[in-house]
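Exercise: predict the structure of this protein bound to magnesium ion.
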Amino acid sequence: VTVAAIVPAAGRGERLGPGQPKALREIGGMPMLVHAVRSLSRARLVEQVVVAAPPDGVSQVRALLLSYDVGAEVTVVAGGAERQHSVALALAALPAEVDVVLVHDAARPLAPSELADAVAAAVIAGHPAVVPGLPIADTVKRVAADAVADRPDAGEPVLATVDRHDLRSIQTPQGFARAVLAAAHEHATEVATDDAGLVERLGVPVVVVQGSPEAFKITRPLDLLLAEAVLAQRRVHGAL
Ligand code: CTP
Ligand code: MG
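Solution:
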């Protein structure tokens, strides 16, 4: 079995505020993308990595990954306008021998290598689609959001409290049999928020395995503080 990882890294990072594309911003003095690629290349089962870079930054990203010792064999392609397009473009660049594909956000730079291995192992064991997930900590309520969308100060009426015992917050790396992921992207008509969402539309079963708190996504400025704290703690424990 040959396992490759795709890393969508072509987003702008609008919610993080002005600056470089998100994947190129640093945590612990190193770009998020480098953290993500290093962690994947340390995974025992991952043999190669394809990065989807911002279209105007492909050569910059290539040079960046060369300047750090990222380990695995890394290819860089231009990403697209939506995350889903970036994944499809990277998928098209995979060599024929790859039969298992992990898709992992550059925006989850601290996801442990062990998580990538666990997801890949579950695919190799026979699951066509595997996603890491965690229980939801907060109480979740459904609100009449559309009814007050034009009146921001109105307060959103609560319709119900959702039973969260069977809800999961989904992370990456997500793992797929290559043929399943390719078919899901070929048949995609609308944009889904994750790759497993496209696979579900094909009617192919998707399973959730235990995620990792350290696989959180860096979306807003506060997430950067958490990432710095995690790295500081890893340094104290000699894990870097
Ligand atoms: N991504 C991508 N191509 C895009 C958009 C997003 O490869 N056209 C990647 C991002 O680089 C990120 C991952 O998909 O690694 C998850 O997306 P998100 O967290 O939304 O990142 P951004 O789109 O960069 O952030 P924002 O939505 O705040 O602009
Ligand atoms: Mg985005």
